[in-house]
Design brief:
The chain is α+β, with helices and mostly antiparallel strands and 157 residues long. Helix content is 17%, strand content 32%. The chain has a ten-stranded antiparallel sheet, with no helix packed on it. The longest helix has 26 residues, at 8-33.
Amino acid sequence: MSEPSTNPKRLLLLLVFMAALIALGVLIARDKMNPMLDQNGDGKPDEWYRYTFGGELVSLEKDRNYDGTVDHRESFVGGVIAESMTDMNNDGNSEIRGKYDEKGRLIRLDRDLNEDGRYDRFTTIDAETEKQLYSESDQDGDGEPDTRLAPGAEADK
């Protein structure tokens, strides 16, 4: 008995077809993993979600003022929020950063009060009571807290 002959053109065509199917599957999966929402109905996406192949939320990006630029980001670990960053003045830098515990509760809030691109106020929050425990302030711009403030106190700036 002789072995069936393989036609190189037919084999190439089959490989191209299989590659196209795989690419199409990746595109479909990507769209399901990266849905977008148009919150204000202007036809442009304002929120972008990223998921793992298993369907777990990884990140969320928002254009909160609908100017076409992302100004709020959230990252997730195990589907639970771990960090958020917000650009309040549209300069491309985050002026507010939130850090969350494993249950998604806010435990720290860092702020860039003088808008120089570095956080200078660090507030620690009790996850259970949601009350401020203390704030620390970086007065000299070295990235290290210089003063600790009682809840509700404001440092001179």
